[in-house]
Amino acid sequence: MTGRDRASGKPEAASFRLRGRRADSATDEEIVCEAADIVEAVGIANRHFGAGDVELRCWRGRDYELRIHADKSWSLKPTYKL
Question: Dmax of the chain from CA atoms?
């Protein structure tokens, strides 16, 4: 990523894949979203899935395990692959 779009000066968006389960559903869902950074992607996951565990993957970076807590706080842990 270069950081900012040259024409508009806005942060350049990256693609994130979010996979998780809503509290009222028994099936996993996967969505792809465009976000300026990982914090914006976490906000999208929070609004879409609510509290729970979500896998977050950035197409240009590493994968993360995201836990959204009931109080809307969150924690992020990188997942390592050997």
Answer: 44
User: Dihedral of CA 67/72/75/79: which sign?
Assistant: positive
Note the pTM of the prediction, 2 decimals: 0.72
User: Among 25, 29, 4, which Cα is nearest to 17's?
Assistant: 29
Distance, CA of 53 to CA of 74 (rounded, Å): 10
Residue type, 62: R
81 by Cβ neighbours in 10 Å (0-12 / 13-18 / 19+) ranks as exposed
> What pLDDT, in 10s, does the model give residues 30-72?
999 999 888 898 999 999 988 888 888 876 667 888 888 888 8
The two structure tokens encoding residue 35:
């976000």
